[in-house]
Structures are given as C-alpha cells and as structure tokens.
Amino acid sequence: MIRGIGGQILWVDLTKGRIDKKPVDEDLVEKYLLGAGFLSRMLFDMIPLGIDPFSPKNVLGIATGLLTASMFPQSSRHVVAGLSPLTEIWGESHAAGFWGPELKLAGYDAIMFLGASKDPVYLNIENDKVDLLDASHIWGADVFETDDWLREKHGKRTRTLGIGQAGENLVRFAAIMNDRDRASARAGLGAVMGSKNVKAVAVRGTGKIEVADSKNYLKQMDIFFDRMLANPFTKERVKYGTTNLLELMNHIGRLPTYNMKQGVFEKYEKISGETITQHYLVKPRADWNCLQRCGRYTRVKTGPYKYIGGSPEFESQSSLGSRCGNANIESILYTHHLANMYGMDTISLGATISWAMEAWDEGLLTGEDTGGIDLSWGNHETIVKLTEMIALREGFGNILAEGSERAAARIGRGTEEFVMTVKKQEIAGQEPRAQKSMGLAAVTAARGADHLYAFPVLDEAGFDVEIKKRFGNEYLPEIADRLNPKFKGVMVKECEDYMVVIESLGLCKYGTQIPPEFYYEDVAAALRVHNGLNLSKQDLKTIGERIVNLNRLFNVARGVTRKDDSLPDRLTKEPSPVGPPKGQVVELDDMLSEYYEHRGWDVETGIPLPETLKCLGLEKDWKELL
Amino acid sequence: MIRGIGGQILWVDLTKGRIDKKPVDEDLVEKYLLGAGFLSRMLFDMIPLGIDPFSPKNVLGIATGLLTASMFPQSSRHVVAGLSPLTEIWGESHAAGFWGPELKLAGYDAIMFLGASKDPVYLNIENDKVDLLDASHIWGADVFETDDWLREKHGKRTRTLGIGQAGENLVRFAAIMNDRDRASARAGLGAVMGSKNVKAVAVRGTGKIEVADSKNYLKQMDIFFDRMLANPFTKERVKYGTTNLLELMNHIGRLPTYNMKQGVFEKYEKISGETITQHYLVKPRADWNCLQRCGRYTRVKTGPYKYIGGSPEFESQSSLGSRCGNANIESILYTHHLANMYGMDTISLGATISWAMEAWDEGLLTGEDTGGIDLSWGNHETIVKLTEMIALREGFGNILAEGSERAAARIGRGTEEFVMTVKKQEIAGQEPRAQKSMGLAAVTAARGADHLYAFPVLDEAGFDVEIKKRFGNEYLPEIADRLNPKFKGVMVKECEDYMVVIESLGLCKYGTQIPPEFYYEDVAAALRVHNGLNLSKQDLKTIGERIVNLNRLFNVARGVTRKDDSLPDRLTKEPSPVGPPKGQVVELDDMLSEYYEHRGWDVETGIPLPETLKCLGLEKDWKELL
Fold first, then answer.
1. 3-state helix, strand, coil in chain A (%, to 5)
2. Is the pTM of this model over 0.90?
C-alpha cells in the first residue's frame, strides 16, 4: 500500500452535478507517480481527439504530487492540466502555495473536472464533505474578492484556488490562481476552468498523512534540510528570491528586451532585484515547507501604482519590464498585481503586449487598431491599461486576449514576423541566442514554449561539477558552454526526464535542479521513507522518459511533428545585435536532431520510434493512435 | 561503492602462469549483479566463436554472488561457467557449500581461468597470497583424496574445490566438486577444468565483510530468518531434505522411470525418502547459513555398498534409481558416493546408463558392445561398475563418457530414439508429460536441458496464492494446473528472469522459489542493507531479463534457433502410458510460441527481436554478432 498520500481521487462530473471518490490506482502510480505523470496518463486516455479546448469534453485535472505536503524541502506544489486553449495541444501548469498540501490533508490527491456546469459553481471540500455550490454571486469577482468571500463563508483557514475575470472571459492565457497570488499560469487553463463554469475550489483539510517509515523519516528529512540550508544559493534566494536573476540575465545577454530583439536592457538597473529589494520589499514569504522563500511581498506606498501584495519574480519582472522596454519598476510591480487579481499569465501578457509594441514601432499597428492607445516602447500607462482591457476583453484588449500568435494572424500586415512563440505559446524570459539549451528546450517542451519543462539551467551558471556528475566526462567542456550547441540534445533530454519526475512529486525545481542539491537518488530515498515506494534511480528515469513520451504522443496525435518544433526566425536567423551573445543565433536544427536521436525519436519526423515506446510500455498507446 | 563483497577478481592466466587482481567493475554489477550474471557478461565477451570447449581459448569462470557469505538465509552458493563440452553452448552450474563464502572472505568475488597450464597445477589462496602450485602428485587422485591432501598441506580449515578422475579424463559430464561432496555438476565444466590442467582451488579466507547499513542489517536478516523458519516446508526439509520428493513425484506421475518411458515406478517405496531417512540417515547437514539442511550424511553399514558420506538428493536418487529401474537403495547411495568421488554429474550419469539399458532391453545393444556387461533394467552391479568405467574411460565406459547423445550417434542402429536430451544434455528428473511447465523450461534453458534455469515449480504443489501474487488473477486457474499447457510461457519466462537473479546473488532456490518465501522485494531489501545497492523490483526484473537474453545471444551466435528448442519425440508424441498423466503429451509448440511472444523473441526463429535487445541495452551485442 502506498503511504504518504491522501488516497482518494475526486471525480466531479459538472454536467451531472455528481461527485465520486475513487481510490488512487497504485499500479498507475508505479508507472507514472502522481502529479504531472498521473494527469498525463489520465488525460491522454480521456480527452478525445478533435475537440475544442472549451468543449465540455475537455477534462481539467488538478493533482498533487507524491511528496506534496511531505517534509521534503519545498514540497508545496500542485499541477493543473488539460487540452490548452492557447496551444491546442498538451496543456499543463504548476504552482506552489498551501492549497495543494491542504487538499492532500483533506484526503485527496487529485480532482478531475468532467463536463461543464450550466451555472457558475464552486467546489467546497471540508475533509470528507465535498459539495458543488452555487457561485453566481461571485461570478465576475476578481481573484482576491473570491478568496475573501470563500474564507468569510467557510472559515479563515480555508485555502482557495480559482479564476478571476480573465478565466471567465476565456482569455487564452488565463491562469488558475491559488492562495491569492500563486499562479498555474501557463497554457491558459484558467479559461478551461471558466468554460466549465467553475469559479473556485475551496479546501479545508485537517487530516493526517501517515508516512511509510516513521523511524527514518525525520532523520532523512533532516539531512535534506541541512543540505538545502547549507547551499550557498539558499541565502541569496531568501534575500532576493529570483528577482536578482534579472541582473545575471542582463549580464550574460539573456534578458529578453524589446520583444526579444536583444538580450540586454540598457536600463536594467532600474528594474533590478536590488532595486526591488532596497525600495519595495516588505518581506520574503515561504510556501509550504519552503526554505528559500523566493515568494515575497512588496509595497508601493504612493502614486498611481500604490498597492501591497505578492511580488513579481524574474519572469514577470522581465516580461512586463525589459521585454516591453519598460523601466518603470512601480508599474511592473503593479501590473503583476493586476494580473494576479484578474488571473492571467504574466509571461504571455507581457510578451503579447511587447509584440504589439514592436508592431507599433514598425508602423504596422496604429491608433486605429488600438482605439487610440499609444503603444510606444516602455509606455507603462499603456501596459497597465491593456492588462485590464485584456482581462475584460475590452476593445483592442479583446484581440490581445487571444495571445500574440492569434492576434497577429487576425491583424496580418507582417505583424506575424514579430510573434515570439512556439506552438502558439509565448517564449518565456530566456533569450535563447545567449543560452542555446533554452532555445532547444522551448521547442521540445510538450506544452508549447516553456522554460520549465526541461529547465536546462545547468550550463547557465557553469555548474561543471554537476554536469560531470550527471552526464559524465565525455560531454565536458562543451556541454557546460551555453553558447555551444553541442550536447545540448543530451542535456535537454535528461533534464526533461528528471523535471517531469519532480513535477510528479510536487517538488520545487529550485533545490532539485538549481542549486543542484537533490537528484534521483535523493527523491528515491524520500519516496521510500514517505511513500514506502521502492523505486530506484533507473525506475525514476524510466518513469520520466515514459511521461515525456506520452506527452509527445498526446501532441503527435494532434498533428505535432518536427516542423512544429521550431523557433521564430529572429532567434535562428538574425544574429543577436548587442552584448555577450552578439553575433549568435540558435543552431536549432543540429541540436534538435541530436535531441531526437537521444530520445529514440525519428529524426525526420520527431515521432517516437516503436522500439522506444516498447521499452517504456507505451506501444499499445501508439497503436491505438494509428 | 558497493559493499558486502570481496572486491577483487582473480585473473589466472594458466598459459603464462600469471595472476592478476582487478577490482570489481561496479558499472557491470549494476547491470548484471555478480555470480551468474557477471559470468554471462564476461564470458560472452571473452569466449571466441568456433572454438572447441577443450581449447585453451575457452574460459572457465568461477564466481560468487552479491549475497554469498551474507546472512541472507542459504547464501552459500557459487557458480562455474564456460563453453560446455556437453552442449557446446552456454555452460553453467552452481553449488552450495562453504567454498564460495571462504573465497569471499579471502577478498575475491570471482576467479577467471584463461589459457591452459602445461603441467597439472592447483591454485592456492590464503587471503592476499595467491599461488599457482604444482599438482602433479595429486593428478589422478579422486576428489576426497585431493581434499585430504590439500587440507593436510594448507591447514584443516582450508576449503577446496576441484575435479576427480572424470574431469581429468574429459568425461563430458564431469563435475567441479567442492567441500568434498558439493557438485557444480551439469554442463561438464569439470572436463574444462581438466583440459586446463587445473586440479583444484584451495582457499583460506579470514577477512571481514563490511555491510552497507550495519544498523538495519541484522534487523532485516532477522525478519528473513523468522520467515524462513516459520515456513511449513522448512521443517520437512530438515527431516527429509529433497529425498521425499520422490514419493511426491511418483504420486503425481512425474518420476522418470525406465529411461523416462513413464512417470511412476512400481517399486518407489524401496528408494523413497522415507526409506533413506529411516534406515540410512546419519544427520542432516547445513551449508553456509542454511536453515533447511537438504544436505545430509548417510551410511551403509555392511555389504558391498558399505560407505559413509554425503547423501543423494532427489535428482541422484531418481536418476540412479527409478530411471534405471533400480530398486536397490544401497546401490543408489553408493553410486552417488562414487560419482562424488570421481567428480561426475549424477543426472547425466544415470540418464546415460538408463539410455543404454533401454537400448539393451530393445536388443539394440548386446554384450558385444558392452564387453559382456549385462545391462538389464535395474542391474545395480552394472550401474556401479559402469560408473567407475565411465570416470576412468574404460571399455564401454569410454563411449558412455561422451554422454547419451554422442554415444547413440556413435552406435546408431536406432538407439538415437531413446536419447532423452535437450541440446545434448540429459533431461533431469522431471517427467514433463506430468508437468508441462517443466517440459517447456527444459527446452528454453540456455544451458541445455536444465530444471533449475527456470525452476518453474509453482504449479507443482498448487501454489495458487503465490501464482496469483506474481502473475495476477488473469492467469488463474490455468497457470496453476500442471497438465494444462496454457500460460506456461508466461510462468517459465518470469521464473527464468527471477532465477538468474537468484543465481547472480549466490542464494539457494529453496526459500526463494519454493517455498515461495522471498521475492524481488526481499532481495532488493537485502541488497540495500548488505551491498548498499538501490535496485528496485523493476531493476532486478530487467537485470534478469538482460541476463537471459545475453545467454540466448551466446547460443544464437553458436547456431541455436527454435529448431533446437525441442524435446525427444517420446515426450511430445507418445502419450504417457500409466499413472496420473496417462494419455498426456507435452504440447511444446504452443507453449514455446507463447514463451517467445512474452520474451519479445521472434516466434519463427526464437531469436530476440531488436527492440527487445534495445530495451535491455543489448543492441550493441547483437550488432557485433551479425
């Protein structure tokens, strides 16, 4: 029997208004773990081909990991998944917080939303008691108002997850928010929740988690805590979170600036982590069992951008800042706050606005398109204004709410050239001409451009020792050179396999990948003491590979092949104009072929080879697709 | 670092008289463990194609397992392997005793004998000190004399392994003996040792074994001990060893009688375990860390068969008894004693004699062939006489020393029809018409007819619960029915995979397979505390499959295909004439196809499919063979 979990899956049929509880399938866990792997398997089998993401036939899954709510450092996470309205392929997003652990303590490992409700509803969970309740009166409310109302009604200790107006309005990059300002932002799954008429999930869980080996449990976790605390990155994280990555990224020329035309921003100091920390930081804030506390509260005391609340991390900071040529830090902090309030992905938000700004700069967009709004680089009033208009689908915001690729397709006139997406999802804050592995990772990610699917950051800070440990000597020094495309196929493949495992356990990638403090052996040890699962390093690697291949099959079944694994021409053909990567392009083709080869995928088509699927026990899935 | 082992491999180049010590390759251990898996990998790479088994280019490997000398119940075993003189394909045989643990305590996990010595030698190991010494004066001595002499010279606590006259005389079923009466008997590897002019290996080891997790080690082993002691089989084993299997086998009609013409012996009571225990047993005897004590001493006090010493177990008892129609128990005990003394496999010995007896009975052999010896069924004086003549290659014994298949080929006249072999090795004491799984196992075993390669005895005693646990409900009740050929392909495949793992760990199959007290999870736990290896159930299964496939490739490279995986017509075409299996034949073709399918081998040829090899990391080995 698997320990250390809630043990039940909630099946919520919204069409019928029916709720079932079923025990976790232990055989499935041994092959896919929980979290991302669990949803990959379930939704692959459940979501029909050829449907619209907003169809009631789409399934929205929310799952915790095998170690969520454990004492493993930073085990606070849950995952949401479904057919993405943005990419129309595999959609998946993750968030930290306390909501996931609360769900686990209520006795549940996942919630599967099927069908669609006729009227707005929310799911209320109080341990054994689970109800679908009327949400008409909070339909239209923002995320904070919804949280306030639910906690007023069900108790202050209730944890909530839900959507704001963006999700209700089917903004294609709407987020599912939890604990007010934590966001499962990418892939637009907030809009899927909106399409199902589900406003929120309130949870109160006061149960216990029984661990498998109570005798060795605390001992093992103590070791992990000590290692995490001793890691030099931890201290820095507590101080800056991820905000001072902005300085590093600018330094190495990887900071997307002016819609990714370049990788350095001349005014970077104005929006740096140091600036935020000195002038706006209230306090760092930890999610469940977090030691690094990247989360933080900030405050703008006066002026038009006055607020107090959750603070942007590097991605929002760069996306709403340098990417839009915006050096007004208070506007960045405030726009991020608004995005949380409306429930939107700040990466796609900033990237979509920056696309529009470049089109404006090139004269392809005018006031006629925008309803008179000025889209000059760095116009922070416009950024704030558009954020609201997108969430509420007003005016020009209604076009941008479709994401940059669909917006450009609608407007035409050559604006398509400035779209910085992969598979219709906006590329995150990693200018790949300055770090080739990130360029490859963006195209291989199953969920559209996504920096976290592989999170191949080992070359970024020159983790030579870690690289040697993981990949062996043969790949050094090329693999550690972020401008050298060589061996990046190996690295991205291996990182993907490991990362989907981490995402199936509910762990934070900081700590498990960077700083490189924990690896397969450590999570295997945790699974032993916490869950009583005896999975070896090799088992976990195979599980990772199995999940990645199943995600790929999900997409292949929907038409994805090598041709779709591509970057905008800007990144592969236009040499970076300034800074450290000056003259560089992403040599994507070579890296991609190397990646396919390591994956055991056909190099021509990018489709997994039958023998690869056989080794992973996926041959049946493939045959069913044919 | 792997713990719980000696840590060194002894490389003995007999041609050059040179001894090297090399550390154990830990990467190899993670893929093949030690023992049988280790030798499978090493010898696959080292033994050239197209050589004679008696060529100096043959390699004789002797290895202990990863758990040999541990406190795991019954962890006393070592394995010998090389190109077999009997089958001319993969040859491997195992024995219990104290010699293997002693080698381990001397600091060595294996010995690899390369080349051939010009003059007789023996290897003397006293911890660090390892010497090749002159054995001229003991060449020609029997096994007991050799042991006496070595212990006289090197100390009473010295453990010895070696050959008697049969090995020196290249009898094709000569055994390698250890601790006087323990035999690595099958496959004729004693003759390979003889061909290399190596008489013996004397070992004295006084070192320590450091276990990986000393804190949990004893605790874990205590659990295993208690379980083993509580198993109802254990008590019976202490009383009878395996000798009372004879009654069971006769009862279910699986007791080879009259050269396997039938499966019941009308005089079985005269040679039963009960008879031995009542009249001849001196005491049961344990090998290293053995709880069941199948080994025993017996004594015949008077008459021509007077002796005291090691006692036959079921295989010798049936082979030299019912198989030859011999109801004289004292002659059986004595012949077994002689076979130990000369160093011969009692299974091939009895089977070869019984083949000759049937040919005599049919009038195809006469006194002219035998030098006047009467070969009537059950003539025990003849059996005793021929045993000596075979070992010394005298007269008709010189022909029989080639094994029954070569002897029949030489004599011709239709005697070939009575040869009960698979791949030239005599089928052991399991009449397969009474237990279909054993018929399949005999043909799929990599080392010629061999009941222990799969040891698929789960259906024998109706272990329904165990079968359900291992194979799931879908196979019941057919899999548990020993006369039903259905699902036997699954069972034999799974048993083979598990058994090669057990043979790579140095464990006894009683306890790990029957009674079904230990399974993958348990050996995984033992490997953790003893060796510090974190291998999961799935890892171990994959390792088992890898070894079986590599053994198969060894044979495929030497011409083995489906056509060689066959039984004598008697067993597949002639219905069993009497007893419980009356009217039964072995439906080999169907079972074999099912087996190949489960193995991922081509059903037409029996050759592993490329994708199967790829999953096991053996694709390179296959390509090199092509």
1. 45, 15, 40
2. no
